[in-house]
Amino acid sequence: MPTQPLRTQVGILGAGPAGLLLAQLLHRAGIDSIVVDQRSREDIEETVKAGIVESPAAEVLATTVSDRVYRDGAKHDGIAFHFDGQAHRFDFQDLVGRSVYLYPQHEVLKDLIAARIDAGVAPLFEHTATSVEDADSDRPRIVGTTADGSGFEIEADVVVGADGSGSIARIPVVGSQQGGFFREYPFAWYGVLVEAPPSSEELIYSRSEEGFVLISSRNREVQRMYFQCDPATDPASVSDDEIWAKLQAGVTTDELKRGPIFRKDVLRFRSFVAHRLRHGRVFLMGDAAHTVPPTGAKGMNLAISDVLWLNRALREFFGSGSETLLESYETDALDRIWKAQHFSYWMTTMLHIAPDASDFDRRRGLGELRLVTGSRAAQEYLAEAYTGWDYGVDGWRD
Ligand code: DHB
Q1: Pocket test for ligand 1, best of 192, 216, 302 (most atoms within 8 A of CB)
Q2: DSSP-based three-state secondary structure for 28
Q3: In this predicted structure, what is the pLDDT of residue 254?
Q4: Domains and CATH numbers, the chain
Q5: Closest residue (by CA) to atom 3 of ligand 1?
Q6: Is-above-0.90 flag for pTM?
Q7: How much distance in Å is there from the Cα of 271 to the middle of ligand 1?
Q8: Whose C-alpha lies nearest to ligand 1, atom 6?
């Protein structure tokens, strides 16, 4: 057992974008926190995740963490939809005067970890939290074990669960790790990382008779591409030739630039929102609070909204003792959460073909794509959601 619990104002489970950004914003307001994560720093900085940062998210990162998103990220002013043998571009600058930034999530994590280390409060890596205790008291505790098997305990005024889709902080909040509104999809993405130059300067989302394809990028040398697959697919069971055939079937015009495939993975599709985001002094945010299917890359961008709401509430709480904003956190955060759930669900269902789709479903789907690409109002709706609605939360700039 630990001899002496560590003491802090905010104990944060999870050194992902949500937990680390919250720690950074609180630090700027003079509020201490301790971030714990079971993974090593190397694992966190190398895990492959989506690469699209919305316009308001880029502004938050550049103002509070690092402007590398603007310096090293690639500004994208549009995306293309390919379907029915044709390409249609959404010109975000023309439609809504905004862009997105291709800046992979592990780069955001490197910036956030460097900022924590600069502040003299490195996250506690390889610390596995096993439970959150005393959620109903004003001294909740994070209890767990370190890599060498010894125990640790963190006593805080507030505990925040930013510990991802397998969150243990959900247990005191909703009663189990699963308690939430949930939807599963009958397909997944087969993803590859390829050593090759970009095949397209902008992302291509495609829907063909074969299903969905996404042509994305990581940088000038490494490309990220996905095609729709059965969720039970074993990544090792698909040959490089089959992969290139599936990807090529999605793009209507260009010949994809090929190169060695050095990573293959299968991404599950699910939508989830926890039944509650708060119990007593324990709060959920990011993937611990909600999961979106990957289409549209809303995961990290949505997590930043939760962080901004909780940052504002915690600044008020530690500044004046008032719990008013802590009490409204759940309602405040859920507004964007359900909008982003809808957008991710809509992009997903519009661009994929379910395995049991009827001829009616396939033709209706094409009608929807023609409607969205053929109407300026519909294009603006998509562009506004894709590039990111304003967060509408204050208290993070200082
Ligand atoms: C990526 C993932 C997405 O889900 C998306 O919509 C766009 C890009 C990516 O991994 O690059």
Answers
A1: 216
A2: helix
A3: 78
A4: 6-71+101-182+271-350 (3.50.50.60), 188-267 (3.30.9.10)
A5: 297
A6: yes
A7: 16
A8: 296
Active site residue 294: yes
Which residue is closest in CA terms to ligand 1's atom 7? Answer: 297
355 is catalytic: no
Answer whether 314 contacts ligand 1 (Cβ < 6 A). Answer: no
- 3-state SS, 39-107, equals CCHHHHHHCCCCCEECHHHHHHHHHHCCCHHHHCCEEECEEEEEECCEEEEEEHHHHHCCCEEECCHHH
> Which two three-digit tokens encode residue 152?
């640790």
User: For residue 8, how many other CB atoms are within 10 A of its CB?
Assistant: 20
User: How far away, in angstroms, is 279 Cα from ligand 1 center?
Assistant: 33
Q: How many whole angstroms from its chain centre is CA 296?
A: 10
Is 296's C-beta closer than 6 angstroms to any atom of ligand 1?
yes
Please identify which of the residues 17, 27, 56, 76 carries the catalytic annotation: 76
CB 118 within 8 Å of CB 83? no
Q: Which residues of the chain have pLDDT under 50?
A: none
Return the pLDDT at 3. 60
- Does the annotation count 104 as an active-site position? no
Note if 329 is an active site residue. Answer: no
pLDDT of residue 398: 86
Whether 70 is catalytic: no
pLDDT in tens, 30-88: 999 999 999 999 999 988 888 899 999 999 999 999 999 999 999 999 999 999 999 99
Q: Could you tell me if 203 and 216 are in contact, meaning their C-beta atoms sit under 8 angstroms apart? A: yes
Per DSSP, the three-state class of 386 is helix
Q: Are 119 and 156 in contact (CB under 8 A)?
A: no
Percent helix, strand, coil in the chain, to 5, is: 40, 25, 35
pLDDT tens across 100-126, in order? 999 999 999 999 999 999 999 999 999
Report pLDDT for 1. 54
